[in-house]
Amino acid sequence: MNQPLFLTPVFQERIWGGTALRDQFGYDIPSDKTGECWAISGHPNGQSTVRSGEFAGKTVGELWDQHPELFGHYDSPVFPLLTKILDANADLSVQVHPDDSYANINENGELGKTECWYIIDCDEGADMIFGHNALSKEEFTSMIEKGEWSDLLRRVKIKPGDFFYVPSGTIHALCTGTLVLETQQSSDTTYRVYDYDRTDADGNTRELHIDKSIDVTTIPHTAESVEPKVDSRDGVTITTFVEAEYFTVHKWEVNGHASFVQDKPFQLASVLSGAGTLRVQGEDHVLEKGMHLIIPADVETFEVEGQVELIVSHV
C-alpha cells in the first residue's frame, strides 16, 4: 500500500443547515439544508469511503476491521475519531455529550463524545454558547425548569481561526453563521437541553433529553484554556491546538516545500485552503481545498509542496 487514503465524505441534512458546504468547498450537497460533512468517518451512521487505489470503495470501518496494519494496529474496537465540517446556518440546539462510561452503559456501548472546533469562518460579531452559570446541580435543574436560558447559558464571541476544546459534559451550541471543522471521538450521541421551542414543518418539536443532560453536565462549568504552540521550520508552520486524551489537533500551513516523518499510528488530514502536492514514495497526489485523507501507518515519510493549509489530527 504505502499510499494515502483519499476519502469521499457523507453529508447529513439538518434543520439548521445551509449551503456553505457547497458555496465554500464546492461539495455536491443533497439539499439547501445540509448541516454536516462527515469527512473522515468510520461511524455506522455515516461512513466515508476510499476514492481510489487498492482499497477503492471500501469504507473506513471496513479498513479498520480488515486491515489493522494501516492504522499501526491501534487498540480500539472501532475507528476512534471523526472529522466533520459543520455549517450552522441557524442556531444549533443547546446540547451536551456523555463521557465513555455513561455512553457505554446508556447508549448501547457507544463511545462518549469529547470534541473540538476550529472556526473556519463566521459572521461578523458571531458568538456561540459555551458553558453555563449554574453553581450546583440543584441550581442547574431549577434554571432549566424555569426556562431561565439567558441567565443559565454562557456566550462567547468567536472569529475565524479560533479553536475551542469541548470535553464531554460541556454545555455548548454553535450559533447562526458559523462554519467549523470538528474533530471528535467517533460518537453520534447528543443530548439536547434546549432547542428554542422550534418546530418542524408538521409543527413538532425535536426531542429533548433533560434527565440525561442533567446527569452528564459538568457542574460548575470548567473551561480548559487552549494555548496553541507554534513551531516553524523549513516550509511549514505547525500550530498545535490541543494534546488531549482522545486526540491531538494541529494546523499545518505549508509555504513552499516541507518534509514529514510519520511518527503516529495514522493521521487524518483535511485541506482547508490553498492547493499543493502530497508526495509519497515518489508518487504525487493533488491536494485541493475540501479534500480529506488518512495517512496510514506504512507511509513512513512524505512531503507536501505548495501553498496549502490543513487541519491534521491523530490519536
Automatic annotation (TrEMBL):
Pfam families: MPI_cupin_dom, PMI_typeI_cat. Its EC number is 5.3.1.8. Keywords: Isomerase, Metal-binding, Zinc. Residues 237-315 form the Mannose-6-phosphate isomerase cupin domain. CDD domains: cupin_PMI_type_I_N_bac (cd07010). Its cofactor is Zn(2+). This is Mannose-6-phosphate isomerase. It comes from Rossellomorea marisflavi.
